[in-house]
Amino acid sequence: MIEKQFKNLDEQLEIFKHKGMVVFDEKYAKEVLLRENYFFLNGYRHLFYRSTMDKRFVEGMTFEELYSLFLFDRTLRNILFKYLLVIENNLKSITSYQLSKKYGYKERDYLKSKNFTTSPEKQRQVADLIKKMKRQIRVNGSQHTATQHYVSNYGYIPLWILVKVLSFGIVSEMFSILKKEDQVEICKVYGVEVEDLIIYLPILANYRNLCAHEDILFENKTQKEINDTVYHKLLNIRKQDDEYVYGKSDLFALLIIIKQMIRKEEYKNMTIEIENTIQTLNYNLKSIGIEKVLDRMGFPLNWKDLAKIERSKDNEQANN
Fold first, then answer.
1. Given a cut of 60, is residue 320 above it in pLDDT?
2. CB-neighbour burial class of residue 34 (10 A; exposed 0-12, middle 13-18, buried 19+)
3. Residues 73-105 pLDDT 10s
4. Residue 318: predicted pLDDT
5. Residues 304, 297: Cα–Cα separation, whole Å
6. Using one digit for the tens of pLDDT, what is the confidence trace for 145-162?
């Protein structure tokens, strides 16, 4: 096995230049590499290759363009992270309200296995989830202000407080093993089908973690595909082999999910924020077009029209 050797800033820059990158200001470039990390910047290089076989940069590609794509992705992460946190908080609130109303507000009441699905193949998952939640009560009972307050003053932690310290992943898993009637009640708030929300929640949780840890976002693909929606049809997204080419396992699929889970005004604001950061990147790109970035994101050229579709009229419009 060949070991990776440390390379100083001059050597790092030389690697880029050897592949055809134009560097106008070497001092600036080395400052960026020192602050941002060569490895992280290098992760954005693929979009500027001449082809998948020819791993040299396209003619005229500059260091500033690579850094612009890096900064674009950072801004995009921050935008989406903000709205993913809104969805996380809303889901926790809606779920805890439904379960507390039906099963009680003390952990000895809402953490009974009979409150979850009775499906035989999911009983182990139910037991494991209850253990995880009880562990969170033990760990966080004295470490967070809200949980400590309830433990000290009442001797228990209600679910609407406990969800504050539960991860998005745990809440997502909890939804998948609720009784069908509870899943239906939660889905009514969003106007989505249970089967769809079961797919959506792990995707949302994964993107939430991706954004929090500053991984590459814009070209991320999920393992699971979302089901076809009315939005795919209304936006006339192109098909290949009878499958939509955009909005299934790409970043645009995430936007389709978010569209269904936040308020109309919030989604319009998010669209404006994303459009602004795309325009900034477009201004800074010289060697490649913004269409190449949008294609890698899974964004159709009319992606902004998704914000114009009224949720209450979705099905009606799709059937016309």
1. no
2. exposed
3. 999 999 999 999 999 999 999 999 999 999 998
4. 46
5. 14
6. 888 888 788 888 889 988
Ramachandran sector of residue 158 (left: φ over 0; alpha: ψ -120 to 50; beta: rest): beta
For residue 303, what is the DSSP state?
Answer: G
| Structure tokens given for 265 | 């005004």
Q: In the predicted model, what is the mean pLDDT of residues 238-252?
A: 96
**Phi, psi of 22, rounded to the nearest 5 degrees:** -90, 125
Region of 195 please: left (phi>0), alpha (psi -120 to 50) or beta.
alpha
With 50 as the cut, is the pLDDT of residue 316 above it? no
Q: How far is CA 54 from the centre of its chain?
A: 31
Give dist(CA 282, CA 68) in Å, integer. 9
Confidence label for 141 from pLDDT (cuts 50, 70 and 90): low
C-alpha dihedral, 301 to 305 to 307 to 310, nearest 10°: -150
In 3D space, the residue among 227, 214, 216 whose CA is nearest the CA of residue 293 turns out to be 216
Q: How far is Cα 290 from Cα 201, in angstroms, rounded to an integer?
A: 30
Q: What is the DSSP string of 25-92?
A: -HHHHHHHHHHH-HHHHHTTGGGGBS-SS--SBPTT-BHHHHHHHHHHHHHHHHHHHHHHHHHHHHHH
Spatial contact of 261 and 190, defined as CB atoms under 8 Å apart: yes
CB burial readout 181-195, b (16+ within 10 A) else e: ebbebbbeebebeee
Average pLDDT over residues 179-204: 97
